[in-house]
Each structure stands twice: as structure tokens, then as C-alpha cells.
Amino acid sequence: MARARALARLMTTTTRGVATTTTTTTTATTTTATAWRRAMPMTMPMTMGRETVTRARASASRRAVREFTSLGRRGWDATSANAATNAATNAATNAATNAAMASAATRAMVRRMRSTMATTAQATPSMTLVVGGERATRRVAWWLGGGCAWVFSMVVLGGMTRLTRSGLSMTDWKFEYEHPPLTDEDWAKEFEKYKQSPEYKKSNLGMTVEEYKFIYWMEYGHRMWGRVLGLYFVAPLAYFASKGYVTSALAKRLGVFFVLGAAQGMIGWWMVKSGLEEQEFSYDVPRVSPYRLATHLTGAFTIYTGMLWTTLNVIYPVSPSQSAGASKALIDATKRLHRVVHPLAGLIGVTAISGAYVAGMDAGRAYNTFPLMGGRWIPEEYLDQWEQKGWRNFFENTAAVQFDHRVLALTTLASVSAVWLGHRNSTALHPRTRMLLHALLATTAGQVTLGVTTLLHHVPVELGSAHQAGALTLFTVVLALMHSLRGPKRLRI
Known about the structure:
Blueprint: H1 2-38, H2 48-73, H3 78-122, H4 134-163, H5 184-195, H6 198-202, H7 209-243, H8 248-276, H9 290-315, H10 328-361, H11 386-389, H12 393-396, H13 398-423, H14 431-456, H15 461-484
Helix pairs in contact: 1-2, 1-3, 2-3, 4-7, 4-9, 4-15, 7-8, 8-9, 9-10, 9-15, 10-13, 10-15, 13-14, 14-15
């Protein structure tokens, strides 16, 4: 009887262990599945099945040892001990089998959930910039778009300031607010400071106070327009942040843009200062350093690029090829165009920056014929300064600067035309991408035509300003095209 009761206890204990193990596995599986459904961005532990099997085997083995030892003390013979051992082993095997089946089911479920998450990730932006629904997104997008337009106007106003030769009218600079002259006495003091500058002595000798006021207000307006732009960012950003619309990612980006804007103001003064000191170059008309002018323009293009790209991310968080329903033909066509548009954008940027050297050297007024320069395809003066300046000849030689800009502009037109010809009939492309591709060709052709017209008319203020605005417009179109060509991102779990 004692042996029968002991055997019954052993089987009961083993059965309970199996039941407990099976219940634990089932509960873990159910809980895990629920967690996957409720919170997608979670990683399923792939070792759950193995851990369950290990726990089941260890628990059953410990129970078998305890029962075997207890029965041994009561005098069990070898046959009874073997029977107990076999029962415990079978129980452990059954538990392990059940756990393994649960583990296999878990792994299958993980694979299904991973596939679902990968599909969902294609339709989800890689980084959320705005929260709060469609209304919040629309308001933030309008605000950022207004900031892009503001920076655009800053570039155009800067070009007008240069073309009217107003940039050197203010002989000092303050980081904070600059109070303009309001009384006749204040204007007289400011005018006296300007009379000490090289520009007045060489170009504007005999200028009246009224004539001085015009160029002063041009430069002052350009500076203050930039300062007000900072307030345009800070005030709405504080409001949207208080509403909870702005994510930390967007706040960080805007913080970077604000710092770059402040640095841009200091770079502008650094540029102006070069025209108020002893001239680095021997010009009849004092000018700012073309290197500093190119740096200032590059900074403006950098800020504009970042702001425009961020705005497009808010408006179009998912590109056509990133959407869940994107076809293979669309993805392949996008990849092919993507490979050629990026270097094309680089060429457009280099061409625009080369225009800064044309402006800094006032090279647009040197050779006012097209396509020949001084009756030659390559101007005779192209390498005049090579022996004295080496590679600087291409940046400080008027003939070289204008010729290089012409070549870059025509190369850009030819490259854009080739890309357009190669992809204009691609029906697999998204309609928005095709529209931007057509706009890129039209804008490039218009910009080259406007540049030639400006050159032939000796760079009047109106055409010169329009040409600078056209450069930024062309850059806007190519950036929008690049944004529409973003490829799908792989999900990492």
C-alpha cells in the first residue's frame, strides 16, 4: 500500500508539473500575442520557447530525484526505482514536447508579426515631426513654408542690396538691434562715418545726404529683415510647443536653423567688413571679398535647403515609393531617376555658387556678348593671372570667373535635358515626380535664358535680381524632386 501511495503521489506531482508548464507556456504565448497587437514597436524574445523547455526539464528532473530519494528510504527495490524514474522521464519528455510546440507556435507568430510590421513601416514616416492630427500638421506646415518664403526673400533682397551698391553704406554692426538715424544730426554723423570708407572716396565722392539715405535704408532693411526672421521662428515655435504639436526631432532641427541664422548674420558682417578695409584686390570700385560673398550665399542656400526639406517632410511624410501599395515598377523607376538626380542637384548648387564669384568680381559687366567673349570662344585673358596666382586665377580673374559660370550653366542645361529625355515617358513614375521633372527642365531653360538676357543688358538691377531669384527657384524644384524620390527604408527589429 505504501508503495502504491508513493507511486500515486509521484504521478500526481508529475502531472501537476506538466499542467503548470503547459499553462505557463500558454499564458506566456497569449500575453505576448496581446502585447504585439497593442504595441507594435516591440521586439519579441525569440528565446522564450527554449527557456520554457529548459525550465520544464529541470523541474521534472528535480521532482523525480526527490521522489526517487524518498522512496529509496522506504526500501524500494530496483524495479520500483526504475519504474519511478521512467514515469518521471516520460513526464519530463511530455512537458518538453508541449513546450517545444508552444515555442514553434511562438516563432511562427513572431514571423507573421514581423512581416506585418515591415508592411506597416513602409507606410509610416521614419520620423514623426508633428503630432496632434491633420489640423496641427497643416498649421505647422504653413508656418514652415512661410519661413522658407522668408529666407527666399532674404536672398533676393541681398542681391538687390549688392546690385544697388548699398551693402557698404553701414560702417558698423551690432548683434542686437541697430537703431537707425532719426534726426538730421544723427544722419550727419552716420554720413561722416561713411565718408571715411574706400567706397565713398573712390566711387561716391560728392554724394549728398539724401542719396546716402537710399543706400543706407537698403542695407538696414536687409539686416532688420533677417533679425525679424528670428522672431518669426521663436514666437510660433513657443506656441506650437505649448500645444504639444512639435516633436523633439522638429525642435532640434529648428534650433539648428536658428543658430545657423545667427551665424549667417555674423558672416554677413564679416563679408561687409572686407569692403570697408584696405582692398585685398586692386579694383577701381571697392567690393567685398568674392570668397566671403560666396560663403555668405552658401550659408543662405544651406539654411534654405534644410528648411525646405523639413517642410516637405511635414507635408509629404511618405514618398510614393515608401507607401504600402507601391508597385515594383514604381520602386525601380524611382531608383533609376534617384541615381541621376542627386549628382544633378550638386551640379546646380555649384553653378549657383559660381554665380556668387561673378557677382563678387562684378564680372557680369565685363563681357556682354554671347556666346563669344571678346570675339573668342575662350577669352584671351582666361589665364592671364595664372603665373601670379595659380589656382586662384579661376576665382579672381574676371574673364575666368565669367567663362566658368557660362560653362557650368550650359552643362547644367544639357544634363537636365538628358535626364528629362531619358525619363519623360516613364509611366511608372508617380505623377508628382513627373510634374517636378518637367518643371525642372522648364526652370533650367528659363534660368539660362534669363542669365543670357541679363548679361546682354549689362546687368540691370531688375534682371540681376530676377536671375538670383531664378537660381533659388531652380534649386527649390530640384530639392522637391529629390524629396519625391526617397526610397523605402528597411525595418529593423
